[in-house]
Specification:
Shape: elongated
Number of helices: 5
Strand order of the largest sheet: 1-2
Number of strands: 4
Distance between the termini: 55 Å
Helix content: 55-70%
Largest sheet: 2 strands, antiparallel
Radius of gyration: 18 Å
Number of domains: 1
Strand content: 5-15%
Structural class: mainly alpha
CATH architecture: Up-down Bundle
């Protein structure tokens, strides 16, 4: 298989159902999702093998596949037919967010991205997920798209935040609190 097609040299690319400019909002969405997937790959490469992170690693691997599904669903010019990304993927993220929120120390103040290298990369992935979400909102204003990708990207950024905190906790590394933060999160436990 050749890696180049010689069909995009004039600034156009194929999407499912036609051709668009390479800077089309749809291409921006799935291109940003691809960037997000790459950051998750970095986190996976950074996490140690063994039992301590086996749950996080298997979830991230699952998420990488779901991100391909998400990008595929957004690549359709007309969202007819079967969607690849299902509502169950959103529910799974919510379940894992709740579990990780219970495991990590209670959050009172805003925190800065950092701590361990893996958590820092996870926070970078979180910010890319937020950008993908914003781009998907912009696409929704121009084209008909499925609604699951937007909900998924929103929950995914929350999942990545919660998982970054758990990674630091399991490594016995404290989250870095924003120095000028007041106590903004009230105890729910």
């Amino acid at each position: 298989m050749k890696l180049y097609t010689k069909t995009g040299d004039k600034g156009k690319t194929h999407v499912i159902g036609g051709r668009v400019d390479k800077d089309d909002a749809r291409v921006e969405c799935y291109g940003t999702i691809d960037e997000l997937n790459s950051f998750i790959g970095i986190v996976l490469a950074e996490l140690e093998d063994g039992e301590r992170f086996s749950d996080v690693k298997s979830e991230l691997f699952k998420i990488q596949h779901e991100l391909f599904d998400c990008g595929s669903d957004l690549a359709y010019i007309s969202p007819k037919g079967n969607a690849k990304l299902k509502e169950e993927a959103v529910a799974f993220l919510e379940e894992r967010i709740d579990i990780y929120s219970e495991e990590a120390p209670e959050l009172e103040k805003f925190i800065l991205p950092g701590g361990s290298k893996a958590a820092a990369y996870m926070h970078a992935a979180r910010t890319v997920a937020r950008r993908a979400e914003r781009l998907t909102v912009a696409l929704m204003k121009k084209a008909e798209i499925r609604d699951v990708p937007l909900r998924y990207l929103n929950r995914l950024s929350d999942y990545l935040f919660a998982a970054a905190r758990v990674i630091n906790f399991r490594l016995n590394i404290k989250d870095v609190e924003y120095e000028r933060s007041a106590i903004v999160f009230k105890s729910k436990r």
